[in-house]
Predict the structure.
Amino acid sequence: MGITIKDIATIAGVSTSTVSLVMSGKGYVSNKTRQKVQNVIDEYNYRPLLAARQLANNRTGNLGFIISDVHLARSEAFYSRVLHGAELEARNYDTSLILSSVAMDLAIPGNIPRFLKGRDVDGVIVAGSVPDELIRYLKNENIPLVLIDYRVPNLKIDTVFMDNRSGLSLVINHLVSQKIKKIAFIGGSNRHPSIKERFEGYQIAMEHAGLGHISRDEKYRYFIESETNMEVGIEGISEVLKNVPDIEAVVCVNDTTAAGCIQQLRKLKKRIPKDIAVVGFDNNNYASMTHPPLTSVQVPKIELGVEAIRLLISRIENPQQIHQTRIIPVDLIIRESSLKSI
Amino acid sequence: MGITIKDIATIAGVSTSTVSLVMSGKGYVSNKTRQKVQNVIDEYNYRPLLAARQLANNRTGNLGFIISDVHLARSEAFYSRVLHGAELEARNYDTSLILSSVAMDLAIPGNIPRFLKGRDVDGVIVAGSVPDELIRYLKNENIPLVLIDYRVPNLKIDTVFMDNRSGLSLVINHLVSQKIKKIAFIGGSNRHPSIKERFEGYQIAMEHAGLGHISRDEKYRYFIESETNMEVGIEGISEVLKNVPDIEAVVCVNDTTAAGCIQQLRKLKKRIPKDIAVVGFDNNNYASMTHPPLTSVQVPKIELGVEAIRLLISRIENPQQIHQTRIIPVDLIIRESSLKSI
DNA sequence: CTGAAAGCGCTTACAG
DNA sequence: CTGAAAGCGCTTACAG
């Protein structure tokens, strides 16, 4: 079942070694022989069986893509775009992407993805937060590894991030340029590095604009230790309004939080942006569907995936290279929710 | 590098055959030997190399998941949830999911996914529409195949669908029960079977409710030959209003179209649902974020993926079984956009 | 109940 | 420049 290298060799009247050399382009094969063999390959549309090649090469040509099931189940299409980018780029390296979602409470090593148990991948990408224990396991097992939008303290691992700090700088500058000064920040769990960086970006930009230093326990800041969701936005804006009734703008750690915030502000009959401007982060699919449409920081999600694959491939090819962090630039997409002039 | 079955055999003082038999649970092995071997396996945490097993078994344990890049890039998280369901269920069969997106204009067989060229999967799931030529290719190559939410005329293939007709029946009944009678339908390309079925469901339900037969060119019906997107909703509702100014409700072929519809109605200062009720289909992530929140038919996306894997596995295990279509039931989620009583 | 041996379809030193 | 042979790490008739 299925044509093999042996068949091709027989038909072309050469040995399997020669066929193999022709396919790989390695070694010396006379032009004449090469042509002859190539013709047979083309005629029969022969493709080597990956399983056999994998065994002989001690290389699978597969890359694992691990994501927590919470992230994959999330309403935003954020990580599915990152995945898409990874898949597109994996193809450019003649590589396949094997997907596995993991539970946040998975047993290690009992419940690790099948492709790890069976050593069926050459490297692994982890998108977003997963149990730190899993990352430590991967690191220990010496599996080439790239993290996207996540980090484990004290562990040197190749990582791809979006430029969170610059994103917040763009946001604050945009607001300040409209003479807005009282700017709140609504955030989520500080455990996640991007959320932390976004708050830091906010702090830095506020200071830079001469609006003083906003500490973590400042009343302008609402911060909750949970997954970011609409509720965080709803509670956050309520809390902030209680403390600072004349707040002029609120920056949310991401679009989901901002959507909750907008919903709550509408309920409170606040006008957006006239009374309060709202800004999100991620520029997710529904940013343009909120009412009013949401100003947000555009994160190039495809690029995050693409860059992660590139970094992973280079790590596989050069295991000794120094660990690096690649930062993907972001843009501010200005929509109605933050344009006071409207 | 990596512990092999030979190592285990040597350590346990048996042959590799015996180790293999213990692992697979096939054949007879004395309890004593089995224990002895199992202990060594556990102690060394030995896992067989998948590539070797694949070669020996002529079975890869991989399943391919193919989706068009347009679908994967789409704003809704629809197919990424289907994918998630497939991944979860694949695991239950000790199987890995290899993902590949394909362009709608891909060259066949030149540009087919790597896992097809290398015969690296035991079967394939195709989610949503892809080039019909690709499906014919898969069928010709005799690769076990399951389609989700798609169909090719005159081709017998296992398929998983959501219950589109019942969905529309739920919608129409819900509207009719509120004494709404003038109900328009806004749709997309008839090429897609689900869209076709939804319109048919609408026709049937309208007739059933005594509201007459609505033909394809009826003024109540706006139908456009393109991908469904917000523009279809925007243009659709404008067109319908031109023809039937006193329209009471509009049923959209999916939530994206409905979102466009809502946006346009707001622009026209129509009150939703007071002047016009709006209903979508899919119950996508942003259905609850539109203003007002959108009534929609909930499609169990995870289940679509789960059921597709089950069907595929049973096809792989029993290649001769009759081709079947499995229909996943749907629910109506009633929100503000269609509740006249509010 | 267990082991020796062949085979799965490739690749790659090695000889010539 | 090309071929014979060994090897990758498994599984599975087959013998005993």
Notes: The longest strand of chain A covers residues 62-68. The longest helix of chain A spans residues 301-317. Chain A has a mean pLDDT of 91.
